[in-house]
Fold this protein.
Amino acid sequence: MGNPTLRQITMLELIPRAPQKTYAKELKDKLSNRGYEIDERTIQRDLVALERTLPLRCDDRDKPYGWSWAEKGIGIQAPAMDPIEALTLSLAEQYLEPLMPTANYKRVRIFFDRANAVLKESSPKLINRWRDRVRVLPEMIRFKKPKLIEGIEDQLYRAAFEGLQIKALYRKRGETQSALRHIHPLGLVMKGSINYLICMMDEDAEHPRYMPIHRFEQVTILDEKVKEPKNFNLDEFVHTNNLSFEFSKDLYTFKALFDYTAAAHLVETPLNSTQAVKRQTDGRLLVTARMTDTLQFEQWLKSFGSDVEVLAPKKLRNKFKQLAKELSNQYK
Amino acid sequence: MGNPTLRQITMLELIPRAPQKTYAKELKDKLSNRGYEIDERTIQRDLVALERTLPLRCDDRDKPYGWSWAEKGIGIQAPAMDPIEALTLSLAEQYLEPLMPTANYKRVRIFFDRANAVLKESSPKLINRWRDRVRVLPEMIRFKKPKLIEGIEDQLYRAAFEGLQIKALYRKRGETQSALRHIHPLGLVMKGSINYLICMMDEDAEHPRYMPIHRFEQVTILDEKVKEPKNFNLDEFVHTNNLSFEFSKDLYTFKALFDYTAAAHLVETPLNSTQAVKRQTDGRLLVTARMTDTLQFEQWLKSFGSDVEVLAPKKLRNKFKQLAKELSNQYK
DNA sequence: AAGCTTGCGACATATTTTGTCGGATGAGAA
DNA sequence: TTCTCATCCGACAAAATATGTCGCAAGCTT
């Protein structure tokens, strides 16, 4: 006879969360794989015994009975989260909630729930205090997330993860009708509130495309493996398709004068490690850094309005000259 | 005699992760609280038995022996993560890593490690594929995080969580020397790469301040409870101190013409639910929305350069007129 | 209706669990 | 040093439990 505790713990780890199920026989096999040669009867008894105290569910509508962990229950976790860990997770929650795709967020939610349960137990008063006392503020304006059809997200993820082809109803931008397409998912890119499926289409088996997942209206996963272009590289794709806003990987030396109050934070949170800052006699900050040529950087510069004067490179300074002209025309 | 399995599971949940420890006597008390009246001897025996198979550590340099879970081990988790859950966590990892304070990130890391372990086991080939095939792209430029002194972050968090006063060495912006201060932590605000401690100072017991935590050089937690101004409200503080960049909560009706390609995404990811978009005959998009007057919104508008023409409110249009003038002067 | 699977009660037995006791050990105080 | 105290740990016996086996019943399939 082996150690019943360890065997039962192992068994509990083998039981999936509802709505999935497992069966006595399955458990017997898996336990046997892990070195516990045990009678099926014993497993039945263990399950019934544990069910009395743990949030286990037994679906006895059919035989064999299907066993699972209650969907909402927190199950077992050892070592338990310590309060600091729990605090950190509850902070992570604040970061993730506005950013992450909703379907995914729901799935990590269970961890946050668990964290909050720990906090509640360790210091029920403090947890509310904490909620009142911590804020994660957005750095930039946040857009509404596009609406997604229930379940679509999950299916696209699964297809991308398992590398399976799909058939999907996809609505192009501006169009009101969706069309059936045969798609080979290659990857996923999340950017701000929009997530894209990177994929190959049957029509053009050479060039991958990206499709915002909120334009999918129906997805069926097929049994066939995805056909990939050889040497497909997601980073490369992202760059060449302007998804990451990078024009090139060439570095240039950036130089500009910033208003002190508008850019003082650059001293402590530099653009990158090549950045140098020097206060000028007129109070402005001369900032120098090696930068890659990205649209995001330009947008960031533009957001300073007249609180920045770009000095170098020439090309960028000219762009700003041009911008000045255009704005003058626009608001004349 | 009770059920040994359940009792042992409960006990395992009571054992902290290293470097924290617990002791036989402590476990006896806590188990007794949970309804397991058990001899101390039995606990010792259980611990030794479980140590053989689980990553438990026993520090036997002193008596009583200190028991803990191995720092790196994954312990027990039931129900086990299913692959989709694991996938989602590994995605959350990509979101959080660049955003979250480093000290915190290390603490949630254990969950990500666990997730990756699950993925490795369930489909070792697919996990690598997934890593190659999913990217979370930054929406805006990201600054380097300021350097923090080891342990400072943890202590400030703990003080803020437990509502305890601290003594700290704090270096003001621009100064090279830090000064000792007596501080009453009230809360925390995370914004982009900078995190702030919101607190009261002994010198001015009326007005809370915010202090970037990377300017703290040493922190000692005191035993005394924080004194708070009555009716302290973090959200209010954040607003009145321009941390959230909100000038006022008054809504105005915003109206502007956007270049189509630059702003097409607004159709699918609107600013808020009041937004209306209409395509003009010249191809531009007329966007209308009720907005609050925030600096962030203005910055976002400015980042469009000449791809936006602000129409209303007048005040905002005038700001842009002014901007056009200033830019013209600057780049003349 | 036969055959199969699965759940479950019963039962005897081997095994484990557990409280108790007493000795060993080591730290700190007198 | 010696004494005291807390703790660990081995031993032991009784009580409780765990386990394999068997047989029956229920429900499904063929």
In short: DSSP finds twelve helices and 13 strands in chain A. The two ends of chain A are 91 Å apart (CA to CA). The mean pLDDT of chain A is 86. Chain A touches chain B through 118 residues (CB under 8 Å).
